[in-house]
Amino acid sequence: MSTPTFTVPEGFTLHKENTSAILLPASNDAFLNPVQEFNRDLSVACIRTWGALMNEEKERKWRQTSERRAKKADVGAHKAKKAKTEENGNAEASAAVQPPADAPAPQPADVQVPLEFRPHRFVVLEALSATGLRSIRYANEIPDIKYVIANDLSPAAVEAMLRNVELNDLHEKEEAPTEGSSDKLVRPAKVRVNEGDACALMYNHRTERNRVDVVDLDPYGTAAPFVDASVQCVNDGGMSG
C-alpha cells in the first residue's frame, strides 16, 4: 500500500516505515523509537505466521466437518431410497410409468453449490500505541485483520493517532452509494482509536463475546502490570506479547 502524496504541515515531520507513514510533531508529544523498527517488523511477521497457522487449523476442522455432513447426507439418501423401493415392491419400482400428458415437467434436483472456507478475520488490540505506527502497520501489512484497537492514555498521543490513521486512509469513511441506491455506505475504520487506561480497556474485553484475538503490549518498561488483563481479554488460542 502506498501512502498518498501530500504537503507536510508546518511543525511536523514525516516518518515513513515500510508500507506506512506518520506525522510526528516537532514538540515530540507522541513517543516514537525509530530503533524499534526491527521489533515492529518481527511483530508483523509473528502475527502473520500465527494468523496463517490459525486459519490452517480452522480450515482443517471445517473440511472434516463438511466431509462428515456429506457422508451423513449420502447415508440418509441411500436409506430413504432403499425404504421406498421396499415399500413399492421391486417390480413396481422398476416399472416405467408414463405421466399424463398434462402433467407438469419434472423439476431438476437441487444442485448443491460447493461451499468455500472463509478465513477467520481477527481483531488486534494494541494497549500502548503512542503514535499508532505499530497498529497502522498491522492494518496495512497483515491479511485477514478485521480491525485494530489502538489505545493510549495520553490525549496528545490519541490526537497523533487519529491524524496518522486518517493519513493512511484507515479511518471510518463515507463511500459513494452503489448504482441504483441512494443509501450512503460507511466503511468501518480499520484502526479504531481509543483513549483510556490500558488495563481498564483490556478488562472491559474479558467477556467471551468481547475478547480479541491478539494483544500487543510492548510497554516502556516491565509488562508485569498488564499481564493479567491481557491474558483475560484474549481468545483461547489467541496471541499475547
Write down the overall mean pLDDT. Answer: 85
CATH superfamily (homologous) name of the domain at 12-58 and 119-173 and 186-240:
Vaccinia Virus protein VP39
Ends distance: 26 Å
CATH topology of the domain at 12-58 and 119-173 and 186-240: Rossmann fold
The number of helical elements comes to 6
| Helix coverage percent | 25-40%
Beta-strand portion reads 15-25%
Series of secondary-structure elements, N-terminal to C-terminal: EEHHEHEHEEEHEHE
Strand order of the largest sheet: 7-4-3-8-9
Radius of gyration: 27 Å
Low-confidence stretches: none
Shape, per Cα inertia axes: elongated
Number of strands: 9
Query: What CATH first level of the domain at 12-58 and 119-173 and 186-240 would be assigned?
Result: Alpha Beta
Q: How does this structure look, described?
A:
- The protein is α/β, with parallel strands linked by helices.
- It has helices spanning 37-88, 90-94, 133-141, 155-167, 198-203, 227-233, and strands at residues 12-17, 20-25, 122-126, 145-152, 173-175, 185-187, 191-195, 212-216, 234-240.
- The protein contains 6 helices and 9 strands, in the order ββααβαβαβββαβαβ.
- α3 (133-141) links the parallel β3 and β4.
- The longest helix is centred in the N-terminal third of the chain and has 52 residues, at 37-88.
- Its EC number is 2.1.1.216.
- Residues 57-109 are annotated as: Disordered.
- Belongs to the class I-like SAM-binding methyltransferase superfamily. Trm1 family.
